[in-house]
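> forwarded from #structure-qc
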């Protein structure tokens, strides 16, 4: 069965009720012999690797789920946009259900897909990958794993025993790891958590935590606001989070670096820098003072569209201790030079002495063998050690265009994959759960 619904219409009507109405016909035929009694229940979402998962309250008609909503009493709600879209994953009539093989050469209007067995699919793939390995070398095959993240450890292991160090995933394209990488460059670790009862001021940058953050992030934010938290939000959009802000810095997309450096300049010029912290823990302060000189509030207003007065007010509010925390979102590293823009925002924490203090920004302290929810493997996972060997890193495709990333990260960056294919550096792509548009 096919439904002719445009992508735009689908996106516009992405609410659960719409999804239920859209996809229900696809299963109704199969369900017609069964009871059509309405009932409801509770479950958990398995659409990502957040542990513990978020709670779902669902409504069903017979064996068909017709609505997904927050399980309000569950410790982890609200559902993020992925969780709330579960009906699409269950019932979209265009889901791929079996191995399919193209029978018409690429370029034809109809690829001529035919269903094949799993045995044939696996045998065909293995033969083709081994042929590339024999002719060109194992590192000419790039392995890639998208989201959800459960398949990542086995795909990584497959790449390792195939002999290719070119194992990439959605996180190593530009997503969370770019943000982590930026913070690791400045602090050696990523910031974790959200504002606590001891946080006096929180600055959230490019992050709509009402829709995109799990674990009751927005509920906690509202609770902290109710007890007096000061909130600064930098976001081009008027999001639910921005609506809670004491100061909403409506920055033009892509100009975050200028805004961050403008705030840094205010701290320096107004003597708001915590020198005892900086002198003890930081390097390069004199260079920072020189570099920020150009970012006057007027210049920042011109670049970013944020009124000069608001830049000054935000810097003062952030510096007004005893405890402020910074939460840069994952949209920032998606900009050109985004890694350095995250680093610029993160400097505000060190300059005001808000690093690892009560109510300030805290860093992850993963136990030695903790299973990272976003990568699915442990620090002592033996395959990770293989990928981290210098001889494997030297064979990775990101060695030349992203040498710092190559040095620091166990996952390869595929960001120049089209060029690598054109140049013949990559001959085969083994993608698992992959949307190449990312
Ligand atoms: S964060 Fe989103 S995708 Fe992950 S478990 Fe919660 S609702 Fe599901």
């Amino acid at each position: 069965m096919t439904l002719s619904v445009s992508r735009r219409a689908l996106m516009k009507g992405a609410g659960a009720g719409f999804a239920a109405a859209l996809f229900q016909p696809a299963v109704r035929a199969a369900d017609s012999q069964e009871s059509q009694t309405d009932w409801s229940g509770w479950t958990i979402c398995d659409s990502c690797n957040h542990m513990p998962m978020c709670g779902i309250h669902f409504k069903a008609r017979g064996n068909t789920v017709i609505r997904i909503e927050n399980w309000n009493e569950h410790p982890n709600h609200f559902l993020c946009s992925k969780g709330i879209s579960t009906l699409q994953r269950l019932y979209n009539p265009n889901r791929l259900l079996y191995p399919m093989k193209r029978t018409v050469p690429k370029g034809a209007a109809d690829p001529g897909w035919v269903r094949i067995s799993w045995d044939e699919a696996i045998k065909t793939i293995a033969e083709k990958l081994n042929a590339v390995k024999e002719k060109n070398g194992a590192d000419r095959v790039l392995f890639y794993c998208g989201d959800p993240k459960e398949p990542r450890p086995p795909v990584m292991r497959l790449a390792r025993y195939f002999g290719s160090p070119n194992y990439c995933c959605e996180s190593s394209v530009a997503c969370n790891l770019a943000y982590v990488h930026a913070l690791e460059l400045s602090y050696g670790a990523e910031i974790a958590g959200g504002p606590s009862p001891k946080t006096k001021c929180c600055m959230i940058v490019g992050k709509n935590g009402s829709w995109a953050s799990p674990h009751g992030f927005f509920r906690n934010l509202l609770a902290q606001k109710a007890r007096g938290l000061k909130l600064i939000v930098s976001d081009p959009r008027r999001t639910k989070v921005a609506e809670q802000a004491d100061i909403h810095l409506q920055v033009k997309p892509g100009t975050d670096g200028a805004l961050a450096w403008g705030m840094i300049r205010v701290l320096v010029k107004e003597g708001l820098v915590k020198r005892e912290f900086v002198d003890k823990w930081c390097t390069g302060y004199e260079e920072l003072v020189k570099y920020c000189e150009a970012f006057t509030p007027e210049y920042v207003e011109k670049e970013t569209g944020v009124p000069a007065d608001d830049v000054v007010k935000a810097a003062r509010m952030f510096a007004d201790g005893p405890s402020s925390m910074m939460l840069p979102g994952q949209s920032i590293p998606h900009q050109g030079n985004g890694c350095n823009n995250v680093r610029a925002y993160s400097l505000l924490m060190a300059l005001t002495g808000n690093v690892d203090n009560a109510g300030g920004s805290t860093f992850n302290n993963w136990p030695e063998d903790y299973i990272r929810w976003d990568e699915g493997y442990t620090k002592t996972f033996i395959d990770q050690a293989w990928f981290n060997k210098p001889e494997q890193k030297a064979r990775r495709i990101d060695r030349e265009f992203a040498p710092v990333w190559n040095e620091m990260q166990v996952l390869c960056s595929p960001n120049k994959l089209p060029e690598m294919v054109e140049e013949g550096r990559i001959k085969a792509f083994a993608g698992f759960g992959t949307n190449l548009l990312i």
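QC bot note: The longest strand covers residues 38-44. The two ends are 28 Å apart (CA to CA).
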